[in-house]
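Give me the fold.
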Amino acid sequence: MARINSRQVEAFRAMMLTGSVTEAAKLMTVTQPAVSRLLRDFQALLKMELFERRGTGLVPTAAATALYTEVERSFVGLERITAAAEEIRGRRTGSLRIAALPALSNGYLPRLAGHFLKERPNLNLAFFGVISPIVVDWVLNNQCDIGFAEVPIAHSGLPSLRLPPLARVAVLPTGHRLAEKQVLEPRDFEGETFVSLSAGSASRHLIDQIFHRSDVRRVLRVETTLSEIMCGMVSSGLGVAICDPFTAEEFSTRGIVVRPFLPRIDFEFSAVFPAQRSPSPVALDFVETVRKSLAALDEQPAHEAALSR
């Protein structure tokens, strides 16, 4: 016994939707005789009359109406699959789990992610702000699809992509005497109370090196692991600091003044991916969005880049 094929079902559905062989043929982009043949064969296989001729047209029978309910249910399912495939191809659906170090997650990266999601209404996001070692750990254990961590990356086995660095900046309390200068250098900090990152961190080492080379003595009163705490301390008027540009920008209207600092000390970080699987297309799209944004910021003068939203 011959079996029903999908084109016969499609012709039946097109006929039910349009009400005429002519329109059904247009919907299927085939000829009218082809639709008539498909309908005839379909009725013969089912041993059921689906359409009655009335005047010059065909009218569905009660059996056709009942059958159409089942056919439509199947087609809706197929259309959902097709729509989902188009969403996936367009990288607008699914979910994305991101972990990022605090300097990025306190404002800059969430704003960028928000714009990214607006263009992908069916994409869901989980976003975590944690210190770099935890970022690496969560990506290593497949808890996140992407991580943004300060370099050097603690685990060399993770695939990573170095992103465009931005220059660190000087942060001063509002009204500080150094705010009169447009660009600050190490010698400007001689004898200043200094809020520093914790000893042993790569960032602390880079900053201390610059001041040691210039033989500048600062008064180191506060150490902290987080640049948000650093900027909070500076805003209180306690002292000055060298900070990543992202956190400095977030505090720029909260009691601090931001100035370029020379020689340039880069704030460097990478995107890291799980080692056991290839990055998803949407994850790669997001990293590319971040890369382009950072490259555009780095092309600006240092003080503009530090303050750009």
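The longest helix spans residues 62-89.
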